[in-house]
Design goal:
The complex is a heterodimer of chains A (261) and B (248). Chain A is mainly alpha-helical and 261 residues long. Chain A has ten helices and no strands. Chain B is of the alpha/beta class. Chain B has two domains: 164 residues, Rossmann fold (3-Layer(aba) Sandwich), CATH 3.40.50.300; 67 residues, no CATH class. In chain B, helix 5 links the parallel strand 6 and strand 7. The chains are: A mainly alpha (261), B alpha/beta (248).
């Protein structure tokens, strides 16, 4: 299938769904507080543009910082794990506990610890908790997956532990890391939004709070506009990370090479 | 003039942690400039012996003696064992980079090594863009780049088609002669050992030891015609017979 068709088909489908939505809402006269028509959502988007953009920026900022922190800490910890089985044995169970504890359950506790005046720090921490584990788990496996014969070859030529890490283990772990980064990108956004819902405070000013406020006041059109922005953020993050993956892997890794099955 | 001994393995044994006794009382002497093939059934400890010589495994008992300092060693595995993220030049350069040789010098030597294996035009190709035979050539170029005196090869051509294998056999013989290398070549192919070697060490089944040493005429001309000659068939027959009697 040509590239143009692959882009045009989903766009055409999207337009058709929006048109059908618009027609059906008008035809059946569905109340705006139940399901607003796309035109009404667009109207609400324009009317609340400044508030929506400010909220989007807040959510995006928390997502990006939490994401960068999860990549940095996840990779650093994975490197430590690959260097020492003892450290891994000691810390990995706690990383799993952090992962399996629902963020909605710990959000109120962390909010109290930090205080509601530092709600962005709370959101940051919660989003980090959600996004961090895939990076740690995947990178640890990636660092361990180095070809044993290549490790022998490095040793034969007198490579230091540091050279083995930098020249063999880290490049080999790159596909694992990039796969995890794609998952964590979405998770950081979900974490930021869920944390904001869970923190449940008017001091947070991201999209989740705007969504909460809009639904409470039955401003469904604004809620849908906020929802659309959240989806757009998610898609943007996914494509940005897919682009990064392609950039780093397309010359050598099978996963990024075009093929027909 | 008697050939100078490069290394002597005496009474080498190796038992792995899982209790597998890979080799027992293996003794082998390799002279400077020899091409010695280790031939034996699968699992007889050929690869283990090679790794012990390379210093990648320590023997359980026995000694390895080098005449003088341990020489520079090149190692070629059964698989090409290339770094997929590096192009052919990056792979061939690896030993030099690890030894801290400046990049320009390392590049020149790696390019020269690639040219010697016929891959001068593929320096910037990634492993996934190369055929099986070409990948193996990069692997050999990488071993040559470090300018080794001793080349250890662990069934390097076992996975290749017959035509590529024969072509690489001839290239290997050329490089062996040009560089004055000493080669220890592990194979389970009687014919390959008969074609390549100046001496064949036949090993017993596990736990492996050298059961017989068969010297071959070092001055024979090896080419396509030789592969069809009675002399070649005779060499192969001698090795086969020794192998059969080693199997017990």
């Amino acid at each position: 299938m040509s590239r143009r068709i692959r882009i045009l088909v989903p766009i055409a489908l999207g337009i058709a769904v929006l048109a059908a939505w618009e027609i059906l809402v008008r035809h059946f006269d569905v109340p705006r507080y139940v399901l607003p028509a796309p035109s009404a959502i667009w109207q609400a988007f324009l009317e609340n543009f400044d508030a929506l953009m400010a909220a989007t920026w807040t959510t995006l900022w928390i997502t990006i910082v939490a994401y960068i922190l999860s990549v940095v800490v996840g990779v650093a910890l994975a490197v430590v794990f690959s260097l020492s089985r003892t450290v891994e044995m000691a810390l990995f169970p706690y990383a799993i506990i952090l992962q399996v504890t629902p963020v909605v359950a710990i959000a109120p506790i962390i909010s109290i610890w930090f205080g509601y005046d530092r709600i962005n720090d709370v959101l940051l921490l919660l989003a980090w908790i959600v996004a961090f584990f895939p990076i740690l788990a995947n990178t640890t496996i990636g660092l361990r997956s180095a070809d044993h014969n290549l490790i022998d070859l490095f040793r034969l030529y007198g490579a230091s532990r540091w050279q083995i890490l930098l020249r063999l283990q880290l490049p080999g772990a790159l596909p694992y890391l990039l796969g995890a980064m794609k998952i964590s990108g979405g998770l950081a956004l979900i974490g930021a939004v869920v944390a904001e819902f869970a923190a449940g405070s008017g001091t947070a000013t991201g999209l989740a709070w705007l969504l909460t406020l809009a639904t409470r006041n039955l401003h469904m059109a604004t809620a849908f506009a906020a929802l659309a922005l959240l989806s757009a953020l998610g898609i943007l993050i996914f494509f940005a990370l897919s682009g990064l993956e392609w950039l780093l892997l397309h010359r050598w890794h099978e996963s990024a090479v075009k093929k027909t099955l | 003039m008697a050939a100078r001994c490069l290394l002597a393995l005496a009474g080498i044994s190796k038992t792995f942690d899982n209790g597998t006794e890979a080799i027992a009382d293996l003794s082998l002497t390799v002279n400077d400039g020899e091409f010695v093939s280790l031939v034996g059934p699968s699992g007889c400890g050929k690869s283990t012996a090679l790794r012990i010589i390379a210093g990648l495994l320590s023997p359980g008992s026995g000694t390895i003696e080098w005449s003088g300092e341990r020489p520079e060693i090149g190692f070629v595995f059964q698989e090409p064992t290339l770094m997929p993220w590096a192009d052919a030049l990056g792979n061939a350069r690896l030993p030099l980079v690890l030894k801290g040789i400046p990049r320009a010098d390392a590049d020149a030597r790696a390019k020269d090594a690639l040219a010697q294996v016929g891959l001068a035009d593929f320096a910037n190709a990634y492993p996934r863009e190369l055929s099986g035979g070409m990948k193996m050539r990069v692997s050999i170029a990488r071993a040559l780049a470090a300018e080794p005196r001793l080349l250890l090869m662990d069934e390097p051509f076992a996975a290749l088609d017959e035509f590529t294998r024969q072509s690489l056999n001839d290239d290997l013989l050329r490089l062996w002669a040009e560089h004055g290398l000493t080669v220890i070549f592990v194979t389970h192919s009687v014919y390959e050992s008969a074609y390549l070697s100046s001496r064949v060490a036949v090993m017993t089944p596990r736990p492996g030891r050298v059961a017989a040493g068969i010297a071959l005429d070092p001055n024979r001309v090896r080419n396509a015609e030789y592969r069809l000659s009675p002399a070649f068939a005779d060499d192969a027959r001698r090795i086969s017979t020794a192998l059969r009697s080693a199997m017990g």
